[in-house]
Each structure stands twice: as C-alpha cells, then as structure tokens.
Amino acid sequence: MKKIIFLILFSILIxxxxxxxxxxxxxxxxxxxxxxxxxxxxxxxxxxxxxxIKPDYFRDDYKRKLPNTNDENLSFFQKYPIExxxxxxxxxxxxxxxxxxxxxxxxxxxxxxxxxxxxxxFITAYxxxxxxxxxxxxxxxKGNAGIYDGGVQAIFVxxxxxxxxxxxxxxINTTTFMLMPHYYDTTLNPANIDTPDYYIPQVLNGPGxxxxxxxxxxxxxxxxxxxxxxxxxxxxxxxxIPNIEFRFLYxxxxxxxxxxxxxxxxxxxxxxxATFRFPLMNETIxxxxxxxxxxxxxxxxxxxxxxxxxxxxxxxxxxxMIHIKDKQTKAYLEYAIFGKxxxxxxxxxxxxxxxxxxxxxxxxxxxx
Length: 368
Known about the structure:
globular; single chain; mainly beta; 18 strands
C-alpha cells in the first residue's frame, strides 16, 4: 500500500509540474483555438491546428486532411489520395530467450470527397508470431496472419459519422509512450504467452457499425459489433486540443461465454483517461504523461500512469500499473529507454524495456 501511495503522489507531482509548465509556455506553443461555434456546430473545413497526440490509425476514427478538389493542377490520386499506415512491435525476452513479433498491422484506404461528404474505403491486415512459451508443450512456431478490419467510413457535412467495418466496437485506449503495449488483443494474441494479468484485455470485437458526431477535436459516437453471442457495444467520448486529449469509454459485452446468449452473461467496462504532450524549447523537448483508470465488471480495476521524456532521439519512460482484484492490490513498475529515429514519414524505435515482475526485453517498433 505504501508503494501505491508513493506512485500516486509521484504522478500527481509530475502532472502538477506539467500544468505549471503549460501556463508558462502557453503563448509560445499554443495556437489560437477555434471558437465554440466552429468546433461543434459550424463547418470546420481545413483546420490547421496541430495534433500532438496522433490517433490510432487501426482502431480509431479520424478526419483526413483533404486537398482542394477544385485545384486543376492536382492529379486524380492527389485529389482523392490513397493512405497507407503500418506498425509493428518486436521484442526479445532476455530471461526466457524468446523472440516475439506482436501487433503488426498494415492498412490501406482511399478517400473520395466533395463539399458535403468524406467517404473512405479501407482494409487492414494483421500478423503476429510468438515463438514459444518455454514451459508449454506445442509446436515450435506459433503465428497467424489475416484480415483484421475493413469497411467504409463516411463523414457528412464535416460532422456526422457513419461507418460499417469488420471490427466496429470501440476498443480501450492504445496510446503509450513505452516501447511495448500495456494491453493484449483477446481475439488475436494467445492469452498465456508473455502476457501478465495486469495488462488490459481488448474487447471481443466483430463486424458492425459506428454512428455519431466527429470533428477535428472531438468525437461522440456509438458502436456495436457481432462476435458470436458477445454482441459488444460501446459509447465513446473523446476531446482533444493540441496538448491534451480526454477519452471516456463505456463498453458492454458477453465475455463470460460468447457461445451462449443470456443477459446475465454480459458485463460492463468503464475507462477514462487523459493524455498530455507538452513541447518545450521550440519542440526539442517533450514532456509526456498518461493517467488512466479502467474498471471491468466481475474482473478487476486497472490504473495506468505513464511519464515520458523526449529529447531529440533519446526517450525515457515509466509506466506504473496498479491491479486491484478480489480485494488484493498489486503495483508494478515498467521502465524503458530507447532511441527514436525518423526517416521521412517513418519512425523507428529500439531500446530496452524492463518490469518489476521479472520481464526484460530488447524491443522496438516501426510506425509508418
């Protein structure tokens, strides 16, 4: 309990210092924000405000930056661009001598638009390879690949979101400043391979719809998928300005027995999180932080705190995970130091990540 109190006080101190720094540097780094009418009612058009907190291009909705279709100097594919994103995380577990490639995604899509509608068709592939768990008896190579998601997203008059896709239900927050994720995908990754119980499971997901309102700086939407008899449903509220993003998720699914349907099998999930990114000294230094709370009914409470420091290519990050289950509270600390290299639109990270539960990795990821 003393460790938990110390971690919470330490994080509060860090966030307090960040907010003080924000007041000091506001005029230097914060652009003028649009008025409330433009944010929530009027047509946004080409909003030039920077987004320091990038969206999850594989799970989240986001508005594309679109060219002027009346520009006769643009070719067809410049007016209606093709978009490609890729990410992969790889790790070598030092003590168990195992190599893993996890959460690899590649997505491609194209957007057609005019003054009233932004229409995007896309498809997303996934792949992962977990070589082996040393104490489990199965074939040496365990891997999988296939179609992760796909569908269409339409945004009418800059505001109204309608989307039909293969993994429709909103997932938990995937933002992290560490090398390796804090969650695992319940429908992809084997649950018993290098996944501690304080990592947060993603929802059981499936094809369905998303409907709601979306802007450059907010989203209010409902989603529903169909995974066997789980029928996951979620409500999402997200609001961001260049330095801060707030996110609230309520989700309802049958994770106890997806093969059978009964209302008593359904449980709820509530997650609220805040993400901060503050640039200093002409954006040569970044101070990052995440504060997040997740409650899974009939499972556990999860508290995730992260602090990150970026200086040119050097990144240092801490993650505190507090896991409360059956009235037992456990706290874990993860830490990472890594280099970040950029080449055009691609970003390469490689370094070391460790944890107080005895896991140590040489790890890295690629984002494009």
